[in-house]
Amino acid sequence: MTEFFKGITPLRYDPSSTDLAFRHYNPDEIVMGKRMEEHLRFAVAYWHSFAWPGGDPFGGETFERPWFGNTMDLARMKADVAFEMFDLLNVPFFCWHDADIRPEGDSFAESLRNFEEIIDYLGAKMDGAKTKLLWGTANMFSHRRFMSGAATNPDPDVFAWSAATVKACMDATHKLDGQNYVLWGGREGYETLLNTDMKRERQNAGRFLQMAVEYKHKIGFKGAILVEPKPQEPSKHQYDYDVATVYGFLKDYGLEDEVQMNIEQGHAILAGHSFEHELALASSLGIFGSIDMNRNDYQSGWDTDQFPNNTPEVALAYYEVIKAGGFTTGGTNFDAKLRRQSLDAQDLIAAHAGAMDICARGFKAAVAMTEDGTLEAMRQDRYAGWDTSDAKAMLASDFSSIAERVASTGIDPAPRSGKQEILENIVNRFV
């Protein structure tokens, strides 16, 4: 045992508690025929919780963690602390980038040795723990070699380095029985067209993703390959801007049946969408996979990665998750970090506990809306005309036939209310 969480006991479900506890999240509560834990599938993000030093665009490190440093001993200490936190929170999953869990070496070979050693260490810890791996991914955006992208880099050697890195991370995810593998193109974009061959970069990114899918099948990895959209930040023009953009990309390279989406609330907001919009679109396209749960500061123009605290927003998100059929290999990953003034171990536990409670409240509200059925009944009523034989015949005809029908019948449609305020009032009954 380490000393970092000394004095903090495992959290329990206790609605009346005034101390660290779950007041809404009861993992054993049966909802829609399953335990709440099985619905929500919470995961802790290794990078924000254990690797992030507390910086922002205008200031450096504020956190002083005993495991910060670039040695294997400190990497093992970090893993020890992480699993202590997983036990305190009783979470079923965690997620990592390679750079979160291993020290950077002086060469690719040294970094790989460090990585493989720490993967074995994590595997040993997982053997005696409840917490499993939701997904692994590669950090191909922090190091200066990736300043011009990874798969989209103008230097083929960077492409090669990136491919070797993803191979190692997919191998590790497979070894740890991860449920998914995520590709997040943190710098797969460009700053100016003056030095960019956009066609070549998109082609290379498409081939890179095809290679990842090919390798998944080669090694027999049964989990999902997920792509995480993100607009603008850090590159001015990201090729993975939002769900619609990524879907078009997948169609271009024949990957729409092989790749799903990991959708983040904060990224949806940066793209000018709501979280539920991105979830609903992914579901309608058949590519919904998993979510990163957080929130942005609506007064800031960047990705603040705060823990969720808005029940109505969360409820609408989970409403779309439920409509999509719920999670299969995916889950709710807290891609969220403490505020840089929240220095203590207790802050880290409280942030996750509060987020898990908010998600539980939102999820139960979404379940209640689903079981009530009013929203879907009103939606179906609004589009009921399209289920008639005349409407179906119109879609199978052509402009000329439709024009003749309009002229002969004297169609003069009267607008119908969309009832938005009534629908919002219905939502407010549950949240």
Automatic annotation (TrEMBL):
Catalysed transformations (reactions): alpha-D-xylose = alpha-D-xylulofuranose
Can you name a GO cellular component term?
Answer: cytoplasm
**Cofactor section:** Mg(2+)
Q: Per the record's keyword annotation, is Cytoplasm included, yes or no?
A: yes
The positions annotated for binding Mg(2+) 1 are: E228, E264, D292, D335
* Family to which this protein belongs: Belongs to the xylose isomerase family.
* Protein name listed in UniProt: Xylose isomerase
Compartments annotated for it: namely:
Cytoplasm
- Any note on cofactor binding? Binds 2 magnesium ions per subunit.
What species does this protein belong to? Ascidiaceihabitans donghaensis
Q: Where does Mg(2+) 2 bind?
A: E264, H267, D303, D305
Question: Could you describe the subunit structure of this protein?
Answer: Homotetramer.
Q: Which InterPro entries match?
A: Xyl_isomerase-like_sf, Xylose_isom_bac, Xylose_isomerase
Active site annotation, chain numbering: H97, D100
Q: Example GO molecular function term? A: xylose isomerase activity
Gene3D superfamilies, alphabetized: Divalent-metal-dependent TIM barrel enzymes
